[in-house]
Amino acid sequence: MNLFRHPHRVTYAECTLGNHIYYARFLDLFEKARGEFFRAIGTPFLSLQEEGILLPVLEADVRYAAPVRYDELVRVEVVPRIHGRLRMEFRYTVIGPCDDARVTGRTLHVATGLDERPRRLPPQLADAMAPWLQCPGGPATS
Hints:
Layout: E1 4-9, H1 25-40, H2 45-50, E2 53-54, E3 57-64, E4 73-83, E5 87-95, E6 101-110, E7 112-113, H3 123-129
Antiparallel strand pairs: 1-4, 2-7, 3-6, 4-5, 5-6
């Protein structure tokens, strides 16, 4: 399994008066890292939309261990999993400059068409994700 890493420099706009990232902004950071993951595997979100495929979020959670502060250079590690034929999960860890885990999170997605009805994940997407999947042994893990 490969580990996808997305670097991020914390901007002032993301921070509270206390100079740390506002708690809800981590979902934005996760989305940015997830988008870069899809771009890195050659399947940007826009190409999925052009094929009529959406990946709306079913669940999201975030756990905070330590603040992430203004101007810190952090990295977001992304670990994907495919659940069956319709769902995929992403786990995230925000790593601080001293290699300490500051925040962890997870999003669960379902594949749908533009009509919002469930659709199978495209086989080419599962194939592109295979080197990155958490569980070895093929894209259909549970």
